[in-house]
Amino acid sequence: MLLSTRKTPKIRLSKLKQFLRNNLRCYSDDLNPPHVDVNFTNGRSLKISTGQYARLADGCAVATLGDTSVMVTAVSKTKPSPSNFLPLVVDYRQKSAAAGRIPTNFFRRELGPSEKEILTSRLIDRSLRPLFPERFAYETQVVCNMLAVDGVNNPDVVSINAASAALALSDIPWNGPVGAVRLGMIDNEVIINPTRKELQSSILNLVLSATRKNLVVMLEGNANNILQQDLLKAVKLGTKEVQQIVASIEKLQKSYGKTKRNIEYPLEASHEVYEALRSLSEMRVRKILTDYSLDKLGRDNALTDVRSDVTEKIKSNFSDLDMSVFSETYNKIVKQIFRDLVFEEGKRCDGRDYDQLRNIECKVNLYKPLHGSAMFQRGQTQVFCTVTLDSHDSAMKLDPMAMLISGVKEKNFFLHYEFPPFATKETGRIGPIGRREIGHGALAEKGLTPSIPDDFPFTIRLTSEVLESNGSSSMASVCGGTLALMDAGVPIVAPAAGVAIGLITRYDDEKANITDYRLLTDLLGIEDYMGDMDFKIAGTKKGITALQADIKIPGLPLKIVMESIQKATEAKQKILQIMHECIDKPRTVKKDNWPVSEKLKVEAHKRAKLVGVGGINLKKLLAETGVQVSAIDDTTFEIFAPNQSAMDEAQEYINKLLTAEKVPDLEFGGIYTATIVELRDIGVMVTLYPGMPPALLHNSQLDQRKVAHPSALDLEVGQEIQVKYFGRDPVSGLMRLSRKVLQAPPK
């Protein structure tokens, strides 16, 4: 109507033209958004772009590797929250539509986060969190949205790079960027960002995040007993490759990034308050932290008493002091005293040297009804592990998206980790496991998986319940899990153990580097809280099976990373020796309650007798004896029994089914008299002996002439005819009979 009226002012037409030009330019720009390309040494490339989607977010970037693309947005509130920790939330969600799939649940839509999504969210979080400014208290959310998944390239590493770019391009203060690569190793050659197929033959699956100057920010992965020198080789190469990603994101940020916003930091205590707190607490805190007779509870109670006393005195002298400011300042003073003592005393708060392990105690075969059990105690960290063996039908089935990304359909070994509140003398709700428990359990499972034999006939469920916790309960789960597996008679390839390495540093803010540091073997809970790193490493005597570095400072030099791995390897050997003294090899003398598994070969024509109509025979067997029979192929069945007596009972039942009647031996090429019991369009059903299931004599084998229907030969039910026996079909098991070969050819 606007264009058709004569009275339309010219100014309106010009505005319309300008509007169309602006919008057309936007759509044209979208076709080729600002981007950078990162080319790796193995020929693969990573593309990072921005400006195309989610323009209302503080920052947005799309990263593409192969045909896998992930969009990540970053949004931060403009007002600080009252929390005294970084309120960062990372949400990584797998989208079925991105892979051309429809969710298989009842609602046919994405529901709550899966275990894989939670683990990937934690992976991204640990790559980003160390680079936020100290005392940054603005709620920040990073959302990873899969646009396309090709089933070849894993989207988790792509998400880390996209998240790094989104934060770098945003106005959110952040000391990045970081870059991330996945490292594999095939035939002693390191592979950068291996495909799903390559990972299946790789002995290493390591995700590495690093920032400029070759500083490592995050490590997490698993390996099949990789040698220490091979792991260090992969870390060096991965750190070098990451520098290209960091440089490319910095280039994109320089051209298209927003100016970082000014933030308000929480109030700090005045110099007068700081000195008052220090004078009231320093000597008492030092005395507690150098009293090596105190255990975890004694130390915590003593520090709590000092805090309560100092709080009352400060309140009387500074009545207008905000208690949140007091709490943060006091914690900062105690943390600094703790860190200084590590350098000054040459000992830790429990009296150990830097490389010394806590006292270790192991026990196995704790309760008779369990297939396998163990207790592993390291200092005041105690875990109770149990092993349950069941049939292959109890294997964990993965969801379709996890199958597409990992290439694994089911797992016949899995570990469940529990951390109840009483383990740290606390109260709390016991219910569905949280993100932390999922993460610790997955790490312990990675550490033990290479030790499980591929051809083990049972599904293994390993549980690890933390009964006491004072640091590194996930690595204690690896040790306890190994003991429980050997107690259950699982023929593991090699025992595995785990240990955590901590770090205390002195940092030069002006030069932005570490001036001095101490590595702490077998980390305590308080050393994890006050320190700068929790580096967990698990492995066998031969090599490394899993590792996870939780780094709290903006990157570690490669020198410290390599020293940490070396110290963990030395400690691991000592732990394995202690475990060897408890149980030196998998149990070979069977327990009465161990399950039994056997293979059963059944002739194809007897399959119906074994299974029964609608599987009634197998259902009855399961209900009466608890024995489960599963078909492997047409002629092979697997019998799973909870114990040997149940297996004996099941075998007796199966023998009765298969030998219920005497079947005469038929000679190949023999001529027999057959009785017709039914006429069909395709032939006649005949029996050769009483009680025999009718066999088909096909029209093509009835006569030398072509037969369309048996009635054309005047055949009737009950009539006897001569047939020749040619054995059974090797696939179907059906009898092969012929009447035609006994007739003379037509003249």
Automatic annotation (TrEMBL):
Domain S1 motif: from-to ranges: 669-740
Molecular function in Gene Ontology: 3'-5'-RNA exonuclease activity; polyribonucleotide nucleotidyltransferase activity; RNA binding
PROSITE patterns per record: KH_TYPE_1, S1
InterPro entries tied to this protein: ExoRNase_PH_dom1, ExoRNase_PH_dom2, ExoRNase_PH_dom2_sf, KH_dom, KH_dom_type_1, KH_dom_type_1_sf, NA-bd_OB-fold, PNPase
Gene3D superfamilies per record: GHMP Kinase, N-terminal domain, K Homology domain, type 1, Nucleic acid-binding proteins
EC id: 2.7.7.8
Coiled-coil zones: none
EC primary class: transferase
Keywords: Cytoplasm, Nucleotidyltransferase, RNA-binding, Transferase
GO CC annotation terms, alphabetical: cytosol; mitochondrion
Presence of keyword Coiled coil: no
Lineage top rank: taxon: Eukaryota
Spans through the membrane: none
GO biological process: one example: mitochondrial mRNA catabolic process
Family membership: Belongs to the polyribonucleotide nucleotidyltransferase family.
UniProt name for this protein: polyribonucleotide nucleotidyltransferase
Source organism (scientific name): Tribolium castaneum
Gene symbol of the encoding locus: AUGUSTUS-3.0.2_09329
